[in-house]
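Structure first, sequence second, as always.
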């Protein structure tokens, strides 16, 4: 378990890094750990048999391995064993991704299981307990509708990093992570499919991840970009995950090769290629065809087109521009995070007016940069408020809340924080 403990420490570090560093006033993750008892050598326990009905979402299926745990489960078919896709939401809302993707699961033929316990901010022993119990449940025939030889995993944000730990410890072959990379880069023994919204504060990480994985892994790796924020990807974007998992099963003789599905996939990607203007995006789409279809058909024509694009002056110029933008983004993030408690509210009002202008008048990539910085500052401020409230430092919490109202005035968390802080201040 030494490697697993190392990965848990990496996960905690990534949560802190993703959410920012405010210089002299560090902003840390608010911990709302559920009261879970750690267990060793998890063994399934006897529980009432559950009759799973097809095309049904079960919000709270108790764990056999640990009675303090539960899962959300979606079964597209009540009679047939199917591959299983295990998901982790950063807020322990197992039903959320299942509601989002149950239509895809039904179309492609996957059981979906999501933890109702795994969430950001837990201690390493809690993650260890959750994952060991989950794997024991998967292997115990507790869920008789799953093919235990075909397990995939994924998640969003901190949940994506948890899925990479799950894959590393239990030899899961594919990780599907949205809004986050992998927890630890020393060795990646799984295939990785990522998703990043172009307004996501973790966009830079995922944009650069492809080159990093090429240096440490000989497995498949591909990142899909979409118009959006730090969020579970929309259903039409997340189809990519189900295509990859289906093709993986075909390559490994666990599903018959479905040429009709392959053709459908090709048509969808080629339609995207026809409309995108940027050379970097075109190259990424050709790479998608190569990565997904290699082993199923001849992809040499797609590989040739990919090589031609990445050798072009236009592609290199776009890459150089993105590197410049990322450098600027890192500098601005650091400077503004350090100003969260060091500048008055009126200063922030002026800065957000500048942001508003920049988000609507600059070239697209720079506009998106400012939106990512604002989203980063919103999260960092929120986490700073909750951290200072926990510490009983209501002065700093109030100061940050006033700044939060300026940075992200429409955020639905503001009324709740205001009410909670007022009660503490009395």
């Amino acid at each position: 378990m030494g490697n697993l403990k190392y990965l848990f420490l990496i996960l905690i570090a990534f949560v802190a890094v993703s959410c920012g560093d405010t210089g002299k006033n560090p902003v840390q993750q608010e911990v709302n750990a559920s009261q879970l008892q750690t267990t060793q050598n998890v063994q399934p326990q006897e529980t009432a048999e559950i009759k799973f009905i097809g095309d049904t979402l079960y919000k709270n299926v108790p764990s056999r391995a640990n009675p303090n745990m539960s899962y959300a489960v979606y079964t597209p078919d009540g009679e047939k064993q199917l591959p299983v896709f295990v998901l982790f939401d950063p807020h322990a809302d197992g039903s959320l991704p299942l509601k989002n993707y149950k239509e895809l699961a039904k179309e492609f033929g996957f059981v979906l299981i999501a933890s109702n316990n795994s969430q950001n901010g837990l201690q390493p022993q809690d993650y260890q307990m959750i994952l060991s119990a989950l794997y024991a449940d998967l292997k115990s025939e507790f869920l008789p509708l799953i093919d235990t030889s075909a397990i995939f995993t994924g998640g969003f944000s901190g949940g994506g990093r948890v899925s990479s730990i799950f894959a590393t410890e239990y030899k899961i072959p594919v990780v599907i992570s949205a809004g986050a990379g992998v927890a630890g880069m020393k060795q990646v023994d799984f295939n990785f499919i990522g998703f990043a919204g172009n307004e996501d504060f973790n966009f830079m990480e995922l944009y650069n991840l492809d080159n990093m994985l090429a240096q440490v892994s000989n497995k498949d790796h591909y990142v899909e970009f979409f118009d959006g924020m730090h969020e579970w990807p929309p259903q039409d974007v997340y189809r990519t995950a189900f295509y990859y998992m289906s093709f993986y099963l075909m390559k490994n003789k666990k599903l018959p090769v479905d040429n009709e599905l392959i053709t459908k996939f090709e048509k969808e990607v080629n339609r995207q290629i026809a409309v995108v203007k940027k050379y970097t995006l075109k190259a990424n789409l050709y790479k998608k065809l190569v990565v997904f279809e290699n082993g199923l058909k001849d992809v040499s024509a797609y590989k040739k087109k990919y090589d031609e694009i990445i050798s072009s002056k236009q592609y290199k110029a776009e890459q150089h521009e993105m590197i410049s933008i990322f450098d600027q983004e890192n500098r601005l993030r650091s400077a503004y995070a350090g100003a969260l408690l060091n500048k008055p509210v009126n200063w922030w009002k002026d800065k957000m007016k500048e942001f508003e202008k920049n988000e609507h008048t600059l070239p697209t990539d720079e506009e998106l940069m400012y939106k990512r910085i604002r989203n980063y500052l919103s999260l960092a401020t929120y986490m700073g408020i909750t951290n200072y409230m926990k510490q009983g430092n209501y002065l700093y919490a109030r100061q940050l809340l006033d700044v939060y109202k300026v940075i992200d005035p429409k955020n639905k968390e503001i009324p709740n924080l205001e009410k909670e802080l007022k009660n503490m201040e009395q």
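Margin note: Residues 2-44+51-256 form a domain with the Rossmann fold fold (CATH 3.40.50.1820).
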